Q: What sequence folds into this?
């Protein structure tokens, strides 16, 4: 699809056609949404679809997860007129942080961290990432927010797979994603 083309009728999820299939192998997600971010209307419609289930919900801040969650998270925060918090892989913040170990989608053990001076008890945070594959990264972000007394207002991602971790999130938190189940990998 042309990056300037906008369909005459824009059905929910029309922008998914902008994503490219994985050509690099099993260490990557099965679709790459980065081309979607280059399409102005596609990005706007994707963010609107992600935020739709949270219309009327109390959200105080949006947090995006390192690194591709920064794009969608910042766009969602701007749309909602809320602040944006970056939840980072360990070692990138020069302020006081709290860390949480996790296993990423490739099976590697890592640490996620967040600054300690932004989340106050009761603050309602919408967590955003590009993709929830195994759920490990998102679960670490959830645990960081809750450890600091924040409340997870919801979880939003372009795709939330039905992995064990994805199901754990779906059973516990209000969530939103754009890829219909019939298109998700088996």
A:
């Amino acid at each position: 699809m042309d990056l300037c083309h906008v369909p005459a009728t824009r059905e929910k999820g029309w922008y998914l056609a902008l994503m490219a299939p994985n050509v690099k192998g099993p260490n990557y997600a099965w679709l790459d949404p980065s081309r979607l971010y280059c399409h102005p209307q596609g990005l706007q419609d994707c963010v609107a679809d992600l935020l739709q289930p949270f219309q009327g919900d109390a959200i105080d801040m949006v947090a995006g997860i390192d690194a591709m969650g920064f794009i969608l998270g910042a766009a969602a925060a701007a749309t909602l007129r809320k602040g944006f918090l970056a939840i980072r892989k360990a070692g990138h913040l020069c302020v006081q942080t709290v860390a949480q170990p996790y296993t990423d989608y490739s099976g590697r053990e890592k640490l996620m961290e967040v600054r300690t001076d932004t989340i106050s008890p009761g603050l309602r945070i919408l967590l955003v990432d590009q993709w929830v594959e195994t759920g490990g990264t998102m679960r670490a972000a959830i645990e960081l927010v809750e450890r600091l007394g924040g409340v997870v207002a919801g979880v939003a991602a372009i795709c939330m797979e039905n992995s064990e971790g994805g199901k754990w999130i779906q059973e516990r938190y209000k969530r939103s994603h754009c890829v219909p189940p019939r298109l998700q990998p088996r």
The first strand starts at residue 20 and ends at 21.
